[in-house]
Write a sequence for this structure.
């Protein structure tokens, strides 16, 4: 089997043939690796670099060069690799991997090694100035023209259709401060029609995991895998999607850990495994139940753990026992011996952990897949222990943080929900009048109703208004750091773009949105584009041109320093928010300026003002996000961590001692990046929580227990932890509910609050007490967790499937299984929209879609590119490494179709899409499956969109996007899109 890429994957260099003139001074891969420090371990002088931007400082050659090192973080996945940027006279001349970082230990992947080249040059392919679409071509305009034009248009739309006619897609590339400000900005506009990439990558994780035991995040860390004895990858190809994380996995393997990979493809991760098992895409639940079947039959479960800390495992056990080896083989295609091996290895080599990413989440029953993985770990007693847990790998550099504090359609920062109490809490934090804020919305009902999700914004435009649960359709759309090719149903998305009245793209790169918006509609399209539509492109600064905190997948926060000032005419995202707020009439409210107080100061950057990022963290995030412990990570503490990475242990992430030379801050006992929850005020000096729910540690030492977030009993059964199950050193040695002022008084602890704390905490619970007094007394004085001590839930009674059950995909290759494992019923109103399940599945069975499209189509990431890919495919270093989109197809399948390696083929999907890609014939996929990477765009059904990009701003590598052809299908809880299991046909081009 192939375990690494070869030249056969992209045999012809279309980049060299067609874009050589655009590249100019290109370099080869060897030179790229050498100059990135991967070969020689050091950077090169600025004068050696191609695309140099040192010319503007030549006049100052006689003056001594001012050289400084800026600490920053790679922008490409959730691992959180540190980068040291060398800046000379304001010019970024060199980058180096950080060997002191406990996370990346001096390593970079190809993307990380190339971050300095992301648009840092005069001839880069960034969006350099504002532009407007005029007669099908983008023309340069000034910032004032763009801001005024957008303002006039959106105010007209608001007057005609109300605030919910606007949609704002935020970004997982925004830092925490920008993400929180984005949610505030949209709230001040008066809508919940806001979302970001987490909806289409890990919303099912957040919902499924949070509803199992309290917090919807990775329980442990990459580093904690050093303690693992078994690591099960189910839905993760970490070697390509999170390459540097494999440092920790391989270290665990060196320590004796068994690596198991379950995947429809033999991936690079599988190449490192002790056992690889091929599974039919979309059948994760039967596989895990097959493991649990063996675990329960053989008594391998942790009975004492279940008795003390889990609710509803008996129902999960009953479901697991239905999945006999014969049933599992029929549905998954996996032999009993493989399933038993996985179960026995996980059970007998503990602590064992499970790793997943979008292979589990992007399904119409993704929430159930996630929950059955949690049930497996609860059955084995693997949650809340070092080396165990659920290690959930996020995709973008701040998708975790943006989810925690940013633009979600169903919650305010910190997952506070949308109830009146949540809005009142954040109005206090933001220094706003609640009644004024309420008046910004069309109604209180809409203020407290989740908005449309980003996965369905196109239906918010196209559906008949009488079936949408808001006053009008979406008429204006802001793509604020989001690539459209990362979403399904591309053909319909083009229609929706053409129907809008206003489309605004805010991004360092114009993204595929610009080309899709500018290209004419298909000749056979049965709609008329909106002749009055206006399209604007606004250049956002990169994250290296601003500062702020980002949260890695392990919940650690890291502080990015501003490496250089924004280049060209770009502005930081928060500066653009403030500029709009000035035009739209709520600038003071955005800054929290009222009654002589002001939360956020302004600073001057170049020729404009922007909100001061440190104030956003300290005065709003730290003051408001008590619920998830974003209150202790002040800018000063995080900056001290970045300066002293060498003090932290690379396995435990803890600093045994040491002080920051700049501030004198004592880092002793802190976990690196103060991983949330970092509870209480900064004065409490909570160290952060490396491993969630670990009862073997005191709560002031990073320990914890399961969250009491679901009541105290269910059907007469206690939901609180059993007697004797509690965090080390707790004064309460049994289960207890979450703390509020009433419970604190009943326990006789109220007098331990200061008079000032009592005044603030009276009538509040631990999540809304802005003094932090309840948390301080409960944790520091009594060793208890403010969110209570409860049992995890195997039975999530508030979900459509309280116990996870297998349901066949809407576009299943096994229509014979639909009757036994049907999808959900259709839903009339779901996130403001009607959503189809059974209707689509039954129609596909009736139309025999699986006969016309017999191949399972799945997609995923490759190491060279990420996300929508515009940024990385515009990087000349990375563009050389992968120049073609391709389809992996099994040799037998290819032979049946007379396909040859390296030739173009057509991929046909049930949507009517035709995608032209290269054939990559490989046994990595089985005869029933094909795989396409999802980070390509720039073609439209075989036609190059180069003429429709802004001049000089098209990515070097362009190709058909797989999501142009992916099909309808959404998770029943979160509206996650289905990208991992659909159908296609592949034919000779």
């Amino acid at each position: 089997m192939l375990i690494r890429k070869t030249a056969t994957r992209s045999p012809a260099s279309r980049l060299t043939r067609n874009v050589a003139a655009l590249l100019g001074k290109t370099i080869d891969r060897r030179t790229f690796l050498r100059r990135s420090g991967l070969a020689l371990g050091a950077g090169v002088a600025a004068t050696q670099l191609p695309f140099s931007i040192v010319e503007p400082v030549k006049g100052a050659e006689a003056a001594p060069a001012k050289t400084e090192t800026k600490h920053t973080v790679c922008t490409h996945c959730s691992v959180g690799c540190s980068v040291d940027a060398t800046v000379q006279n304001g010019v970024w001349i060199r980058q180096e991997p950080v060997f002191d970082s406990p996370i990346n230990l001096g390593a970079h992947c190809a993307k990380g090694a190339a971050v300095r080249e992301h648009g840092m040059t005069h001839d880069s392919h960034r969006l350099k100035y504002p532009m407007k679409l005029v007669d099908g071509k983008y023309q340069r305009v000034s910032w004032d023209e763009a801001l005024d034009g957008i303002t006039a248009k959106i105010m007209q739309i608001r007057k005609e259709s109300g605030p919910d006619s606007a949609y704002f897609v935020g970004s997982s590339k925004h830092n925490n401060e920008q993400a929180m400000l984005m949610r505030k900005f949209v709230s001040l506009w008066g809508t919940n029609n806001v979302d970001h990439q987490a909806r289409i990558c890990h919303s099912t994780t957040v919902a499924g995991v949070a509803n199992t035991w309290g917090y919807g995040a990775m329980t442990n860390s990459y580093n904690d895998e050093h303690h693992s004895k078994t690591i099960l990858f189910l839905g993760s190809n970490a070697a390509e999607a999170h390459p540097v994380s494999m440092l920790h996995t391989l270290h665990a393997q060196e320590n004796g850990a068994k690596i198991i990979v379950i995947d429809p493809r033999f991936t690079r991760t599988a190449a490192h495994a002790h056992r690889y098992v091929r599974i039919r895409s979309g059948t994760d639940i039967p596989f895990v139940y097959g493991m649990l079947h063996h675990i329960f039959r053989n008594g391998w479960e942790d009975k004492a753990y279940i008795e003390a800390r889990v609710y509803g495992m008996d129902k999960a056990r009953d479901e697991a026992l239905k999945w006999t080896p014969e049933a599992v083989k029929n549905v998954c295609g996996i032999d009993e011996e493989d399933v038993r091996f996985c179960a026995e290895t996980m059970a007998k080599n503990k602590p064992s952990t499970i790793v997943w990413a979008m292979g589990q989440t992007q399904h119409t029953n993704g929430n159930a897949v996630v929950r059955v993985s949690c049930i497996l770990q609860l059955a084995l007693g693997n949650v809340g222990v070092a080396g165990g847990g659920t290690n959930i790998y996020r995709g973008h550099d701040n998708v975790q943080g943006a989810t925690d504090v940013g633009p979600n359609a169903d919650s305010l920062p910190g997952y506070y929900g949308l109830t009146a109490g949540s809005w009142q809490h954040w109005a206090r934090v933001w220094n706003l009048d609640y009644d004024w804020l309420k008046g910004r919305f069309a109604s209180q009902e809409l203020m407290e109703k989740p908005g449309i999700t980003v996965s369905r914004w196109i239906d918010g435009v196209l559906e008949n208004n009488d079936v949408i649960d808001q006053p009008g359709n979406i008429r204006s759309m802001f793509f604020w750091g989001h690539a459209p090719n990362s979403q399904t149903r591309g053909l319909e998305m083009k229609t929706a773009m053409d129907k809008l009245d206003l489309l605004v793209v805010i991004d360092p790169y114009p993204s595929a949105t610009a080309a899709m918006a500018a290209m004419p509609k298909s000749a056979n399209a049965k709609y008329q584009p909106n002749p009055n539509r206006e399209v604007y492109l606004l250049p956002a600064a990169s994250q290296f041109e601003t500062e702020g905190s980002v949260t890695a997948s392990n919940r650690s926060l890291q502080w990015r320093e501003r490496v250089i000032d924004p280049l060209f005419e770009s502005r930081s995202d928060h500066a653009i928010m403030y500029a709009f707020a000035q035009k739209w009439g709520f600038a003071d409210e955005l800054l929290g300026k009222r009654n002589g107080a002001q939360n956020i100061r302004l600073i001057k950057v170049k020729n404009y003002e922007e909100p001061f990022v440190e104030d956003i963290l300290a005065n709003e995030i730290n003051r408001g996000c008590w619920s998830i412990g974003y209150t202790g990570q002040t800018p000063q503490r995080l900056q001290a961590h970045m300066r002293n990475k060498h003090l932290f242990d690379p396995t435990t992430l803890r600093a045994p001692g040491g002080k920051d030379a700049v501030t004198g801050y004592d880092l002793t006992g802190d976990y690196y990046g103060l991983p949330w929850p970092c509870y209480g005020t900064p004065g409490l000096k909570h160290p952060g929580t490396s491993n969630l729910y670990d009862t073997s540690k005191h709560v002031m030492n990073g320990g914890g227990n399961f969250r009491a977030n679901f009541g105290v009993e269910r059907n007469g059964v206690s939901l609180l932890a059993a007697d004797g199950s509690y965090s080390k050193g707790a004064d309460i040695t049994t289960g207890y509910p979450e703390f509020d002022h009433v419970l604190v008084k009943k326990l006789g602890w109220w007098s331990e609050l200061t008079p000032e704390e009592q005044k603030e905490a009276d009538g509040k619970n631990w999540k809304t007490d802005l003094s932090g007094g309840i948390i301080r007394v409960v944790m520091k004085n009594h060793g208890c967790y403010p969110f209570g001590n409860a049992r995890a839930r195997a039975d999530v009674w508030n979900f459509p499937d309280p116990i996870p059950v297998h349901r066949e995909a809407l576009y299943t290759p096994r229509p014979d299984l639909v009757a036994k494992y049907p999808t959900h019923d259709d839903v009339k109103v779901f996130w403001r929209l009607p959503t189809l399940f059974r209707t689509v599945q039954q129609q596909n069975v009736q139309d025999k879609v699986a006969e016309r499209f017999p191949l399972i189509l799945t997609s995923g990431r490759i190491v060279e590119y990420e996300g929508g890919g515009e940024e990385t495919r515009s990087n000349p270093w990375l563009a050389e490494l992968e120049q073609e989109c391709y389809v992996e197809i099994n040799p037998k399948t290819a032979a049946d179709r007379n396909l040859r390696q390296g030739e173009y083929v057509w991929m046909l999907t049930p949507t009517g899409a035709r995608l032209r890609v290269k054939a990559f014939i490989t046994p990595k996929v089985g005869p029933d499956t094909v795989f396409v990477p999802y980070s390509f765009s720039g073609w439209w059904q075989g036609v190059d969109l180069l003429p429709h990009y802004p001049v000089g701003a098209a990515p070097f590598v362009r190709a058909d996007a797989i999501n142009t052809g992916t099909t309808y299908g959404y998770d029943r809880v979160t509206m996650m899109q289905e990208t991992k299991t659909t159908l296609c046909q592949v034919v000779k081009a």
Summary: Residues 143-161 form the longest helix (19 residues). The radius of gyration is 27 Å. The longest strand covers residues 914-921. The CA atoms of residues 626 and 767 lie 5 Å apart.
